[in-house]
Design goal:
Elements: H1 43-46, H2 76-94, H3 98-139, E1 142-144, H4 152-157, E2 173-175, H5 176-180, H6 187-215, H7 224-231, H8 242-257, H9 265-280, H10 284-287, H11 290-309, H12 312-323, H13 329-349, H14 373-403, H15 410-425, H16 429-432, H17 435-440, H18 451-474, H19 484-508, H20 526-542, H21 546-556, H22 562-577, H23 584-591, H24 609-612, E3 625-626, E4 630-631, H25 632-640, E5 646-650, E6 658-663, H26 664-677, E7 686-688, E8 705-706, E9 717-719, H27 724-734, E10 738-743, E11 746-752, H28 753-763
């Protein structure tokens, strides 16, 4: 089967709903237990027979026990318990041995060393991406005669004929028209440049989608929805692997260079998390513990934004506000350190040759006046409206891609969108330039309106419509595609239009500004309006607030513009929230059916645990194991006849008194290993979840299989009358996968994360079957 063809076209990551069959129908079940069991009792000796070595997974750990299958959720409580036990053991040993003390110090330092490596690796990769993308973007327009590997700017650095006013013009750089026709002006040279621009754009996009399709389907999209889901505890094997890192790095350069309406900022978060996940395998503490690994991934998300925008502090706040599910204080410090190292590494590489962390660093020094607060709030309203409209339009387009034949032809889709983008973008200089050029460029000066200004305004208005429409159909295609820069470009164009209008108003009506704006003074800065508009639109799409303001502050270096940015960003969020509470990443998580409990979503219904638990009245009885009365054959029959990920263990079928909970995966691995390693285990052997051998077992019976070591003796339980809002809070704050429902100690049923998500969808008049994964 062609894996790529089976992918869900609406899913950025390439995770398909068709893979649902791999996950099992019931929510992966198990809560953690830190308790340990005693060694197996030698019942054979008591019966007068030769003692047989009994395998207990606690005393003799089995490979695979305690691990998770693909498309399952981790057990946060068990993982944290494992780490506490590991740390306690290391601490106890360090008191008795110098070598153990050194190992303890090494273990404590390993987290900081890992952060150092993540920062160095991500910074180096980001520098390479910046250099390559700048070079390939310029290649669409021409080539350097001194060496084809030089971009336009570097090509003209060594030229003695370059002036400050025309620093991009030098004899060493030739446009394609100059190389072919010997001239740069006229209809034929224009046609040649047009065709070469289209050729390179189509070539780059074709290579990008082909590499993604052939080698790493998970390398498409921005990656942030999947990163958020993974950080909440979900497992998507291969999504943060080495092939995904390699292909995403290469195809990100190609996609950005093709001129598509996308950015590299979101994918850089994915790249940073791939680096962190790969480096985690060097340290057993993080390789063997999924919860500890997610602390590193949270820090890596901060590193990704740090190198994308040159904003280390904004990156840390972005990880805390937008993507992280569990963010302890220790992770905050390490995120800050890793972002610092990554920013220093990128600064050392100096990919843009301007001693800055970003290609376009802007500095505004003109003060703003209280009168301007009104247009800033207007930009916030526009950003909120645009964000709400974009989310609805993009999700509708992705659903159409998912439900029609369009989704079966990702390569054709990418080429068609690239062709449309190139055909419409080339004639307009504002759509031809990169998104960051649009955001920070300042080609419209403070002057009286003339024909040139009117032409520029018309071009900006057309560029605004073009960017709004093309971004809707671009985001979600099978190439790496970030949303930060396209959203900011929309806001920057709208802000610049408003800024020019305010500038002309101040130019002709100085008296309206109560003496603040004197004739001949540069009272209004259109570039500032562009930055405020960019922040407003990005905030409307993603619902970011604090981190966004800090990122924009670090990008502009203007502390005095904090208030305009805060006003526009907050207004944008309020307006967008009026049309829907979820941002674009939460919308894509919901579209793809991931089991993500949004911390910001409120549960305001009056239902009880008994209303949500399974089994329902019309369902078959809950599948359970008894603590000592079932044989190996009966257990295997029960497991094979169901697709549940775990089973409650009760005293007996009659009493239904709860003893604990056992994972399906641990159960199968333990039985399989016992058949290989424990002599005499057959289908008739009793499976015991107790320390003692029951008196009912006959002396001549085969040796029992003791599995108390894999039993969770402290599963989380609620009573049948527990309000669901409390239950939802328990799931969110403890990261549970399931919770057992009891009445006076008697087991009634089970509530899984998937059950809660389906119930919340049903209460919100959404399709509960949209929750595809456990």
């Amino acid at each position: 089967m062609n894996f790529f063809c089976a992918l869900n076209p609406a899913d950025e990551s390439g995770v398909s709903s068709t893979l649902y069959s791999l996950t099992g129908g019931l929510e992966e079940c198990s809560s953690s237990s830190s308790s340990t069991s005693a060694a197996a009792a030698t019942s054979s000796t008591m019966n007068g027979t030769i003692p047989t070595k009994l395998v207990d997974p606690v005393d003799d750990p089995l490979p695979g026990v305690g691990t998770y299958e693909d498309f399952n959720t981790i057990d946060w409580v068990r993982e944290k318990s494992k780490d506490r036990d590991r740390h306690r053991e290391i601490t106890n040993k360090s008191r008795h041995s110098t070598m153990a003390l050194l190992l303890s110090i090494s273990d404590a330092f390993s987290g900081w060393l890992l952060m150092l490596l993540v920062g160095l690796k991500t910074g180096a990769i980001a520098g390479g991406i910046d250099i390559a993308a700048h070079w390939l973007t310029d290649m669409k327009e021409g080539v350097c005669l001194n060496g084809f590997w030089f971009n336009h700017e570097h090509c003209c650095w060594t030229s003695n004929e370059t002036t400050f006013q025309e620093r991009d013009r030098c004899p060493q750089w030739k446009s394609w028209a100059e190389l072919v026709a010997g001239s740069s002006s006229g209809p034929f040279p224009y046609f040649i440049n047009y065709m070469m621009y289209m050729f390179w754009a189509l070539l780059f996009s074709f290579l990008a989608v082909s590499l993604v399709r052939a080698f790493a389907p998970y390398a498409c999209g921005s990656g942030i929805p999947e990163i958020k889901t993974i950080l909440s505890g979900f497992i998507i094997r291969g999504y943060l692997g080495k092939w995904t890192l390699i292909i995403k790095t290469i195809t990100l350069v190609l996609a950005v260079s093709s001129g598509l309406s996308l950015g590299k900022e979101g994918p850089l978060v994915h790249v940073a998390c791939c680096c962190a996940n790969i480096l985690c395998h060097l340290f057993p503490k993080y390789r063997k513990n999924e919860a500890k690994r997610r602390e590193v991934l949270s820090a890596a998300a901060a590193v990704g934004v740090s190198v994308a925008f040159g904003a280390p502090i904004g990156g840390v706040l972005f990880s805390l506000e937008e993507v992280s599910y569990y963010f302890p204080l220790k992770t905050l410090w390490r995120s800050f350190f890793a972002a610092l190292v990554a920013a220093f590494t990128l600064r050392s590489i100096n990919p843009f040759g301007n001693s800055r962390l970003v290609l376009f660093y802007v500095e505004f020094h003109a003060p703003w006046h209280l009168v301007e607060l009104a247009p800033f709030i207007l930009l916030g309203i526009f950003g909120g409206l645009w964000g709400a409209l974009f989310i609805k339009a993009n999700i509708a387009w992705c659903k159409r891609r998912k439900s029609t034949r369009l989704g079966h032809y990702p390569v054709i889709e990418v080429l068609v969108v690239t062709a449309i983008t190139g055909l419409l973008a080339f004639p307009n200089s504002y759509t031809r330039m990169s998104g960051l050029h649009i955001i920070v460029g300042n080609s419209l000066g403070d002057r009286a309106a003339g024909q040139g200004l009117y032409t520029a305004l018309w071009q900006l208005a057309l560029a605004l419509l073009f960017k709004m429409l093309i971004t809707v159909i671009t985001f979600g295609m099978k190439v790496p595609s970030g949303l930060f820069i396209p959203s900011m470009a929309v806001g920057a164009i709208a802000g610049r239009l408003l800024g020019v209008g305010m500038e002309q108003l101040a130019y002709y009506n100085h008296d309206w500004f109560n003496g603040w704006c004197s004739p001949g003074a540069d009272c209004i800065t259109p570039g500032l309006y562009a930055m405020v508009g960019a922040a407003a639109c990005l905030g409307g799409v993603t619902r970011m607030t604090v981190s966004l303001v800090v990122i924009m502050f670090e990008l502009t270096g203007g502390l005095e513009y904090i208030v305009p940015l805060m006003a526009a960003t907050m207004t944008s969020k309020w307006v967008a929230d009026a049309f829907g509470k979820e941002g674009i990443y939460e919308a894509h998580i919901r579209l793809n059916g991931y089991p993500f409990l949004e911390p910001k979503e409120e549960f305001d219904h009056s239902s009880l645990a008994v209303d949500v638990m399974r089994p329902r009245r019309s369902d078959p009885a809950l599948a359970v194991l008894t603590q000592e009365s079932m044989t190996v054959e009966e257990v295997e029959t029960l497991v094979e006849s169901t697709h549940y990920s775990g089973f409650p263990v009760v005293v007996s079928q009659e009493s239904q008194r709860l003893v604990g909970f056992v994972l399906r995966r641990d159960l199968l691995i333990s039985i399989d290993n016992a058949r290989k390693r424990q002599e005499g285990v057959v289908g008739a052997s009793h499976v015991l979840f107790t320390d003692h051998t029951p008196a009912a077992v006959a002396p001549e019976a085969p040796p029992p299989l003791r599995l108390r070591g894999i039993l969770d003796l402290s599963p989380f339980t609620v009573t049948d009358h527990t309000p669901m809002d409390i239950t939802v809070d328990i799931f969110r704050k403890l990261g549970l996968r399931q919770c057992l429902v009891t009445h006076n100690g008697r087991l009634l049923g089970i509530i899984t994360k998937k059950d809660i998500l389906k119930h919340m969808a049903q209460m919100s008049n959404r399709d509960p079957e949209s929750i595809l994964f456990n």
